[in-house]
Design goal:
The complex is a heterodimer of chains A (145) and B (179). With 145 residues, chain A is mainly alpha-helical. Helices cover 80% and strands 0% of the residues of chain A. The chains are: A mainly alpha (145), B mainly alpha (179). The A-B interface holds A 7-8, 11-12, 14-15, 17, 38-39, 42-43, 45-47, 49-51, 53-59, 61-63, 65-66, 69-70, 73 and B 25, 29-31, 33-34, 37-38, 43, 47, 50-51, 54-55, 58-59, 115-116, 119-120, 123, 134-135, 137-139, 143-144, 159, 162-163, 166-167, 169-170, 173-174.
């Protein structure tokens, strides 16, 4: 008796892939074959075990990890829009130089301007000296001018 | 979004709706992770394979020609990721039709007392190429034709592997009870 043949039919029966005509042939055999009945019992036992104990808790880190990878993927997929960054480079490159020059001018002005403002001009100096002279001399000098 | 079919979600995702992808992920993450875990036997490897599988789905959704085959496509990607990691660790990726058991023979674990433990350890001792068809059939209730799409084998090869796996397991359980 070809037990292998009938055990293959048992497998197909358990998988719901056995034709009806074959199924009746199988059950006719099973009624008289203890060996194949035991095979069927074991197959059903395995089937029940896999179905009941199959699902496993997914690690909580997986969600975060996957969506982190997807976010990275999305960032990398975005096309490099050079025109959006060019204006920034053009502005930022001369900006430090312009800023340095402005600071130097400001500092220079602060240093130089008090000197300019406090120093007596030749005209001021001349008038000061003139005012120190006696009135008579002052009038003579003015008359000469 | 939850009530939509896989096909509808795939179409939405192709139009750029990221929420559709998230729904597909939450729908399948547990069965895919469980499938990978059963095949690899290692939590970290299973997590890596699940992560890589869903990332590939995200990257290559446009390459899926028939949207009704999303589930089979997802399983085939997960399966490939598992095989990649198995090849890396065991160099065990080549199908050897001659032997059903992996190097760890179930005879070494015959001392287990519970039926459940015996079945679990026997399943873990099965080679991945036999275990995968058993899991896809028993848990996912996929047809032989659908499994053949996932594994890339013929229907008769799937049928044959399922039979060999079940016969080996049944003989092992039988042996345990008769001892």
């Amino acid at each position: 008796m070809d037990h292998n043949f009938y055990q293959e039919l048992i497998t197909q029966y358990v998988d719901h892939e056995l034709e009806d005509t074959r199924a009746s042939e199988l059950f006719a055999h099973l009624s008289g074959c203890d060996w194949c009945r035991r095979f069927m019992k074991s197959t059903l036992l395995i089937s029940a075990h896999i179905t009941n104990d199959y699902l496993t808790e997914v690690p909580s880190a997986l969600d975060r990890r996957l969506f982190g990878s997807i976010a990275k993927e999305r960032r990398e997929q975005q096309p490099h829009r050079w025109w959006e960054t060019m204006w920034l480079i053009r502005v930022l490159m001369p900006l430090p130089a312009a800023l340095s020059i402005a600071i130097l001018i400001a500092l220079g002005s602060l240093i130089v301007s008090p000197m300019v403002l406090t120093r007596d001009t030749p005209v001021n100096d001349y008038n000061t000296q003139l005012s120190k002279l006696p009135r008579e001399y002052q009038e003579r000098i003015k008359a000469i001018q | 979004m939850e009530s939509k079919s896989d096909s509808q979600l795939v179409r939405d995702f192709r139009l750029g709706v990221l929420e559709a992808f998230e729904t597909l992920y939450h729908r399948y993450k547990q069965p895919i992770y469980s499938f990978c875990l059963r095949l690899t036997g290692e939590r970290q490897t299973a997590e890596d394979a699940t992560h890589d599988a869903f990332l590939k789905v995200y990257q290559h959704i446009d390459s899926l020609q028939d949207v009704t085959l999303f589930k089979s496509w997802l399983y085939s990607i997960a399966r490939n990721q598992v095989y990649k990691s198995i090849r890396k660790t065991k160099s065990n990726g080549v199908l050897d039709e001659g032997s059903v058991w992996s190097e760890e023979t179930p005879l070494t674990i015959l001392q287990a007392e519970e039926t459940k433990q015996i079945i679990s350890t026997s399943l873990n001792a099965l080679k991945a190429e036999y275990l995968e068809v058993l899991l896809l059939k028993e848990f996912e209730k996929l047809s032989y034709a659908e499994i053949s799409v996932i594994t890339g084998d013929s229907v008769s090869s799937v049928k044959s592997r399922l039979f060999k796996a079940r016969k080996a397991l049944a003989e092992h359980i039988e042996k345990f009870y008769s001892d």
